[in-house]
Write a structure and sequence with these properties.
393 residues, Butyryl-Coa Dehydrogenase, subunit A, domain 1, 11 helices, Butyryl-CoA Dehydrogenase, subunit A, domain 3, single chain, 4-stranded antiparallel sheet, Butyryl-CoA Dehydrogenase, subunit A, domain 2, 3 domains, alpha+beta, 47% helix
């Protein structure tokens, strides 16, 4: 493994970082906003910003030029994702098409599918959502029951998806369905590229403590052309898992946490309690050092996945290792940050007394989500045990 960056990659990171410092407004706190009054402004900004990145050729760096990319190295694309995460993902919901829908289409799509979808993603013209989880199929995703039945040149889809991020804004959806109910559950799944404007699709927003980006999607006799199957019929499980590996390997939450850590260090150097600067407290310094170490470990695990992809190696257990450690560390980071901040850490964005613009409180609320989204920590441990260590199922 070689984690060093070329001079060209380092120059790109510097140029991109300086651009983001200039262009991302100070009020922007991330795409997973918790208050309704911020939602519309955040949504409008991220869509405009994604289009600006596309015009500069920075939304997608590593894809072939014929599909809207720049033909850059995979590591440049990783640098792009890392810097975006540090600035709380100003691409907004476009991260999904960039980070894992597009790469899955490149890996499994037909030439027609690539021509139809990739340039649109690279130009920030479409937003994708992902139809995986169902009311009775979450961690055991292979138990999904959304049916797709052949009818002439189409399939007719019926069922329900849940926890589908940004489905109420999405133009298209990658969706897992059951096309053969009479075989073992992993073998009868097909993966479709679905137009969200197709008649029969109903979307309902699920407001939660995490904000208003989760949705339910109901499918009532939805017609999807056969040509929209991504990969092979009845082998969609493998296509879905490849998509999940792109998601898990791109779980760069550590970059956003690194931003908060930088702000925490600044805060503790400028804030006094009982006449003493917080940073001078050895216990607080130890906690900050512990967080810095965790970020570096998570970064190294993520770099390992990126480096494997740059050599054309498909990471399996390695992606799950990075995802597992990063998700669990995310919770630890939020808890430790709250301990450092004390009661001030519980103040939410909008309070005049909230330090760090309420980011610690927001991160604390959000931190359990990464241990579930993209596959629970228990699922990651099973993958590591079986795929990585060769242990029996």
């Amino acid at each position: 493994m070689d984690f060093s960056f070329t001079a060209e990659e380092q120059a790109f990171r510097k140029e991109l970082h300086n651009y983001l410092l200039k262009e991302v407004p100070d009020w922007f706190g991330g795409i997973f906003v918790l208050s309704e009054d911020e939602y519309d402004r955040t949504w409008e900004f991220t869509n405009q910003f994604a289009r600006k990145l596309a015009q500069k050729g920075w939304l997608i760096r590593s894809w072939p030029r014929e599909y809207g990319g720049q033909g850059a190295s995979h590591m440049e694309q990783f640098i792009l994702a890392e810097e975006m995460a540090y600035f709380y993902e100003p691409r907004g919901a476009h991260y999904m098409g960039s980070n894992w829908v597009g790469p899955t289409i490149i890996q499994f799509g037909t030439e027609e599918q690539k021509k139809q979808h990739l340039s649109a993603i690279a130009n920030a013209e479409v937003i994708w959502c992902q139809g995986f989880s169902e009311p009775d199929a979450g961690s055991d995703l292979a138990s999904l029951q959304t049916r797709a039945v052949e009818d002439g040149d189409d399939y007719i889809l019926n069922g329900q998806k849940v926890w589908t991020s940004y489905a109420h804004h999405a133009d298209r959806c990658v969706i897992g369905t059951r096309t053969d109910p009479d075989v073992p559950k992993h073998r009868g799944i097909s993966y479709f590229l679905m137009d969200m404007k197709t008649p029969g699709i109903t979307v309902r927003v699920l407001p939660s403590i995490f904000g208003s980006h989760f949705c339910e999607v109901f499918l009532d006799n939805v017609r999807v052309p056969k040509r929209n199957i991504l990969g092979e019929k009845n082998r969609g499980w493998y296509t879905m898992m490849a998509s999940m590996e792109y998601e898990r390997g791109g779980y760069l939450h550590y970059a956003g946490l690194a931003r908060i850590l930088d702000e925490l260090i600044k805060y503790t150097n400028e804030t006094q309690r009982h006449g003493e600067v917080l940073f001078n407290n050895p216990l607080i310094r130890q906690k900050l050092a512990e967080l810095a170490i965790g970020i570096r470990v998570t970064r190294a695990l993520s770099y390992r996945v990126a480096e494997m992809r740059s050599r054309g190696i498909n990471p399996g257990a390695e992606a799950s290792i990075a995802k597992l450690y990063g998700s669990e560390f995310h919770r630890h980071f939020a808890n430790t940050s709250m301990q450092i901040m004390g009661l001030y850490g519980q103040l939410c964005r909008g309070s005049k007394w909230a330090a760090l613009k309420g980011r610690v409180e927001r991160e604390y609320i959000w931190s359990p989500e990464p241990t579930v989204a993209g596959g629970t920590s228990e699922i990651q441990r099973n993958i590591i045990a079986t795929t990585g260590l060769g242990l029996p199922r």
